[in-house]
Amino acid sequence: MKRRLGPSLRSLRASLIYRIDIWLGRSPLVQLAVLFAATAFLLVAFAAARGGADFVASIWWVTTHFMDGGTMAGDATGRPLAVFVTIAGTVTVSLLTAALASKMGERIGDLRSGANPVVEHGHVLVLGYDAKVPLLARELARSGQRCTLVILAVEDKDKIEAGLRVARGVPGSRLRAFVRTGDPRSELALMRVSAHRAKAVLVMPPLCLDDDGSLRWALATLLAMRRIAREGFHGHIVVEARRYEDAELLDLAGEPGVAGPTALPIEVIASDEVLACVLAQSTRDDASYFVLRHLLAFDGCEPYAEAVPSALVKQSFEEAHSRIVGGIVIGVRRADESVVLCPPAPTEFVLAADDSLLVLAHAQGSVRLGVALPVVSSESVAPRDAKAPRPERIAVIGVNHTLPRLLAEFAALLPAESMVTVMTDAHSNGDAVVSLASAKASRIQIRAEHARAAPLCRDGHPPVRGADAVVILGNEAENDENGDASALATLLRLRHGMLLTGEHSCRVVTELRDPRSAAHIVPRRGDCVVSSDLVAMLLAQEALDRKMAPLYRELLHSGGTSVRVHPAADYGGPGATFAEVMARARARGEVAIGLYPDPRTRGREEELAQAQLEEGGLSSEVDAWLNPPRDTRLGADSDARVVVLARPAAS
Predict the structure, then answer these.
(1) Model-level pTM?
(2) How many structural domains is the chain composed of?
(3) Is there a single domain that holds both residue 135 and residue 257?
């Protein structure tokens, strides 16, 4: 008999263990539901076993014994049942506690791993992660606007969270930031972060990919985004491309009838193009970089779109520019979202009710109608010298992926017969880039020379000696934490060579990847450092208001309205108020937006030094001051200049 029952008992035991294993494999919510149901069944069964006329009293007796083992100590009768109920209660409560702890542990694990979903609407979603994401978050925090930032990337969540600490510490920040772990090329991962309900989606390829790999990654992410962005998607997508030539392929992902039946709103920002535009403009004068940085950053002097006041409807642009106080009207955004900066024909330009004024101001809604500017006739303003600009000599030291676009910008920006010399080592691919650029440039001469950095900067190499400007291109090895050291080493050698040769007149523009590297060297008057955080600033501006993209496109690219600086004597000289400066600038067809150098710099060294340490790119000696009060008077400084926006004909 024992032999016949042995296998049966073993089979029953194995079956019971298997059933328990299946039950434990279910979700904690199912386990909790089963345990609660079993508990309720046991309570009713024990109450029925106890008997008595009052069933409710029996339920209460069983429940107290079930939940608290010490209750049975005061029982005079029914002690065996009380012991049995208490044992059953202890086991059941233990199982309930284990199930709850398991569920809580799973939830904490999800929070730590970034696997739980995000239920948001109208948020800013970043797909991918690189060094510019913390800078982007910092700009969103500095904007003061209420914003929810969600980051979806495969990188370690704790690493990303550490990078966001600077943004979370910005005073007055209204930014909420969440990090989720997942592959942005996966539709399920995109649905988990509510990508189809985002206001703006920023696609930023990871650092670990090369240029071709980043293009393929961005394209795959866009195609995955298209599959979940149905007709109800009302946001827009901004893609960072490392190379200008990649924009055409990325645009195809949003073209209707190519990758999908409907259009997908995609704006491609090529980082090499942005940096090349700023580098090229900075060689013209050192103020351009500081002004463009202020226009791109949320630091109290950025452009906003304001509704046209009813009193200015059907009035001229001149009237709006004259009467709006608290900010400077720099242009108009039409109802079709086209942007007009510095309108060239004020007598023909009339404001409509559905237009928007583009105002350089401290914050959205901070402008109002006020007293008009002084009346200055164009006849009373001396015409600017119209002589042809002289050819310039530019030296470019180093080669990276910004070089092709930089040479293209020089070809469009520099006067005819100018010369650009690219100094490379014998192992670089600079020759091919220069040859291609030379074939496309008809107005300027572009050539390549092989030279090592050390002797080039120590013995006063001829292309450097006598150059109007020198551009030092940074190391683009993204994974090299000391990549900017090569550009800084070249800058130190160049300064040393200038001391030996007595050459101090040329402007030096240095490109760095990490903006904090700018704090590692003492700045000099006339020098500037251009860092990749400009791209993060531009991404932040377009994430919050995509309709401002045409404005920045025109300001950055050659051929449109540009930032220029002119001597303060051209606008009234010492003692003139900024209101008079604005009136005189407008009489020339320009828009005055600030002063350079900033007369307030003295006494603010500690504040600017801290900003330089945290952000980079700011000089503790010189900076621009945009949107000064109208009653600000020009000083007697012989170097004082006025910053204006001017169309090519007025430059």
Answers:
(1) 0.79
(2) 2
(3) yes
